[in-house]
Amino acid sequence: MTRPPTALTIAGSDSGGGAGLQADLKTFLCCGVHGMSAVTAVTAQHSRGVVGVHALPGSFVAAQVMAVATDIGVDATKTGMLANADVITAVVQVLQSVDVGPLVVDPVSASQHGDPLLADDAVTALTSKLFPLAALVTPNLPEVKVLLGLEVRDRAGMREAAKRLFEFGPRWVLVKGGHLDSDQPAVDVLYDGSSFSELSAPRHPSVHTHGSGDTLAAATAASLARGLDVPAAVAAGKEFITSAVEGSFPLGSGRGPVGHFWRVRQ
Q1: What is the pTM of this model?
Q2: What are the Cα distances from residue 97, in Å, to 22, 65, 74, 128, 133?
């Protein structure tokens, strides 16, 4: 018997279970991939926001990556909340020393409630050290503003952002347009340095979208682990998150999560 495809998430823990590594592991499972995790930070959070963050030492984050990569094997990797420059530097060093498959970087900088999840000193480390290792980076529009200082208001702005992010060294860039005008379909722009493609899906009128960015990146990484190329993996990730938003549900007194288990829900 051969082992199934494997994917590793390097991300923070969400105590509410809707985002972070919990969302990634649920997504991996629902996409037919064995999920593994390297915890970067522990957060205390609920449906209304983040109460506290405790980042782990970068050396211990790297030790988690090394442990699974050198024994189990990693077919694809996804990063989420990396907390600070120390963690990013340690992650970059370990990723350069072991084979972890194609890397999807979700440049998480804040929660959907606006709570900061990335230290001020970490943006340069993220773009200059981690982005060049990435097969794909997947920023949303608020993250584009953090990374580039660019306010994006339309698809032309998304294309400009993709071009500028590509200059940091990733092989592909996916700029997500979910924060644009809610009267329009949800359109994301994919760029490989020479050409653009757009992925469009119906926009579901749900406020329960906690963990949506993590879920899209995780579903894409799972597809890469299963052997799809980047455009096909992104399309599969887009399909997964579209259905997960449609299957979202209220939880607590604030913003609920997307429905990661839409494929298996009875």
Answers
A1: 0.95
A2: 26, 10, 13, 18, 12
